[in-house]
Amino acid sequence: MSGTGKAGLNAESDASPFDHDQATSSCGAHANGAVRNMAFRARPPRQGVALYALRPVLRPDGLSGPAPDTKGVTMAINPRTRAEILRLYCAETWKIGTIARQLGLHHNTVRRIVREAGVPRHPGKRRSSKIDPFMPFIRQTLTTWPGLPASRLYHMIVARGFRGSQSHLRAMIAPERPRPVAEAYLRLDALPGEQAQVDWGHFGKVTVGRATHPLMAFVMVLSHSRRIFLHFYLDGAMHNFLRGHIEAFEAWQGVPRELWYDNLKSVVLERHGDAIRFNPMFLDFAGHYHFLPKPVAVARGNEKGRVERAIRYVRDNFFAARTWDSIDDLNNQARQWCDTIAVDRPWPNDHAICVGEAFERER
Hints:
The chain contains 16 helices and eleven strands. It is α+β, with helices and mostly antiparallel strands. Helix 2 crosses helix 3 and helix 6 (96-103) packs across helix 7 (107-116).
């Protein structure tokens, strides 16, 4: 073909009927040259879109139809095609992509039909691995020592002939490692005046003169009202431990029937299960104030969760970003905080009243 212009086409002979009609209708009073120029400047249709729209697609029933559905578009499938998809997936164990290609459907359509039918997914076929001969030994070892690190187990099987990588071992033994059985916890509610919980909290170190001392917080909390007693000492020695009890009893003007403790040496000297050997000095102290000391079970911090949360509350709400000049100044601020901010917080059992009101009822 010959001609001039940007597209290299003859405007008079190659203009499409649509272009010619459009030019004529819009400029009927103009000369033919003007029509030719407008037809020449008209943009040709986008070839990619036209070809895609005209491309026939073979449907499962053998007829031509629209292009396959895309993501987000639901395609209507007749019952015959649906049954064929389920047959190929369940009986012939074909993959989703294979079914989609053979039936001329989009893979999302096939996946949707399988999902709606509630058919379980095909189990993947696991390839053989270098670690397979060692799996019985690994399972037996993990049954005996469930918490054995993978690094130690790796060296054990390497000594027995394993030549794989440690990362491969970690991936393979993760499903084999025994999982701890989930444990249910029962919420412990205490009657008024029945119980208090006691513990130490470590708040760093302070320097007095040329000596450095640990800053220890003695915390006692009433389990019913959540009233907190807080006092700081420069160590957790026995005399400070007993002094903290006395000051708490004086501040509350009473003594709870039971005091729950962790297994700290000031209370428990030795323990084997339920057999407990108490500190004799502490037993004399408990006998003088007529309360029952109850050490919680070993590694059962949840049994004294109220004092654990109270120490965290003291650490976040009182001690954080606080300045003080001396240990006496710190204890004066702690006493004021216990009598104001700590008692004004909502009572966990009834947010309509505060901790201070619950404490007055408890007394």
